[in-house]
Amino acid sequence: MTSSFLWTLRSFKHFVNGSSICQAGPVEKRGRGRRPAAQVRGEILDAAGKLLLDEGMGAFTIERVAAEAGASKTTIYKWWASKGALALDGYFHAVESTLAFPDTGDIERDLLTQIRAFARLLTRTRAGRVIAELIGQAQTDEDLAAALLEHYSGPRRQLAVAAMERARERGELAAGVDFEVVVDQLWGACYHRLLLPNLPITEKFATSLVRNVLRGIRA
Amino acid sequence: MTSSFLWTLRSFKHFVNGSSICQAGPVEKRGRGRRPAAQVRGEILDAAGKLLLDEGMGAFTIERVAAEAGASKTTIYKWWASKGALALDGYFHAVESTLAFPDTGDIERDLLTQIRAFARLLTRTRAGRVIAELIGQAQTDEDLAAALLEHYSGPRRQLAVAAMERARERGELAAGVDFEVVVDQLWGACYHRLLLPNLPITEKFATSLVRNVLRGIRA
After folding, report:
1. Chain A from 125 to 144: CB within 8 A of any B CB
2. What does residue B82 show for φ and ψ, rounded to 5 degrees?
3. Are A94 and A130 in contact (CB under 8 A)?
4. What is the per-residue DSSP string for B91-134?
5. What distances in angstroms separate CA A62 from CA A31, A65, B137, B170, one per listed residue?
6. Contact call for residues B97 and B125 (beta carbons, < 8 A)
7. Residues A99-153: pLDDT tens digits?
8. For B85, which of A10, A58, B80, B124 could close a Cys bridge (C-beta 3.0–4.6 Å)?
9. Any idea where the HTH tetR-type domain is (chains A, B) (predicted)?
10. How deeply is A183 buried, as exposed, middle or buried, from its count of CB atoms within 10 A (0-12, 13-18, 19+)?
11. What is the mean pLDDT of each run of 10 residues along chain B (219 residues)?
12. CA geometry: angle at A60 spanning A58 and A61, to 5°?
């Protein structure tokens, strides 16, 4: 299972830049009537992401996703070339919605919300093992590494840096701080515990991360 | 090369707890005369560590180490069961000496010294690629993961936490701070850039890590 998933990741770049974004397409029949293609696609991605995060790659099949989404296998294969392609798209779809970056105008509150959501995703769903194995495999797979940087960690870095830049404009954060470094000290610290799990990722850990870096640890 | 090295890592626990620590043993002839066994062993580890960090696992052979250390292959095989066992011991030997934790009585200075040394090790030697591949492989290899946690990341965490506890006793660091979390925000942040290299590990990065967490990033 894992190997076919990873195989797909190797062609992730092509896949992401390719045909997976569907603006128009077929319609699907279901008990409650015909649905627009965009809706069908969204429901397939919802089902794929949920199955992946709830049960992991071992339980992930096109048949299960089709059944959960009320779509045909033919429709799924029209938009995704393989099971792995669908899994990857479903994974990012699920993670993206869970990890939306809040903007309440209070950076401490927004960082706490975001890091706690990330910690929960890593520990209470299969996402933690999925992403840990992907990062692990990327250490000896250049194509996978490039795809992860370009489509996963790069865009997620940008969202966090942008949020901190807005906070600086509001006068909440200090001039001269490199927010890219702060990303490594918040999300990177979580990946450290995910990949070298000497200690668990907890709600308290997430809270301490934000507290330490915002206020400093000096006496 | 990598696979045989990793294979050895799987039996790392046995190896570390086993026969590799030599207190007495044979003596070795060399141009300048007979050397005590402990000295021979130290020179073999020096040569093994240097070869590994300078040239990587691809160039690592028992023959090369024997030649560099002025020892016989027979002597090396008396103490290390395989090339991988010697490589692993040499790696930790080399890393340990590079990453000694200074204790000058000034925690900011000591953290800067230590993190900068770690950053240099990861970027200017092969150690970065070696440890990245080990952590990567550990994501799907439970024995390797256990060995890394017990013999690598666990002991290194303890050194850092102990240094920060001494600083707190001196009144430099705040009460109530969980120093284990700070480890994730300093060394863990470096591993994040090592494993997901969107941005490089630089001297400036190392400096910013310490600055951010000690002083905080608030305006």
Report:
1. 132-133, 135-140
2. -155, 170
3. no
4. HHHHHHHHT----SS-HHHHHHHHHHHHHHHHHHSTHHHHHHHH
5. 20, 5, 29, 61
6. no
7. 788 899 999 999 999 999 999 999 988 889 888 988 888 888 887 788 788 878 8
8. B80
9. 38-98
10. buried
11. 42 34 43 81 93 79 95 93 74 79 94 95 88 86 81 89 97 96 98 98 98 95
12. 125
Every domain of chain A and the residues it spans = 2-92, 99-215
Question: CA-to-CA distance for A120 and A127, rounded, in angstroms?
Answer: 10
Residue B111 CA to residue B101 CA, distance in Å, equals 8
Radius of gyration of chain B (CA): 19
Q: Show the tokens assigned to A57.
A: 């790659």
Q: HSE-up of B189 (CA within 13 Å, CB side)?
A: 28
**For helices B154-169 and B107-124, what crossing angle results, to 10°?**
160
The residue with tokens 């021979």 is B40
The fourth-level CATH superfamily of domain B99-215 is Tetracycline Repressor, domain 2 (1.10.357.10)
Tokens at A16, concatenated: 């992401």
Q: Which residues of B touch A196 (CB under 8 A)?
A: 135, 138, 148-149, 153, 188, 191
Q: How far is B70 from chain A (nearest CA, A)?
A: 34
Closest residue in B to A137 (Cα) is B136
Q: Does domain B2-92 have CATH number 1.10.10.60?
A: yes
* A28 strand-pairing partners: A35
Q: Please count the CA atoms within 13 angstroms of the CA of A176 that sit on its side-chain side.
A: 11
Facing A153 at nearest CB: one of B138, B148, B196: B196
Nearest-CA residue of chain B relative to A132?
B139
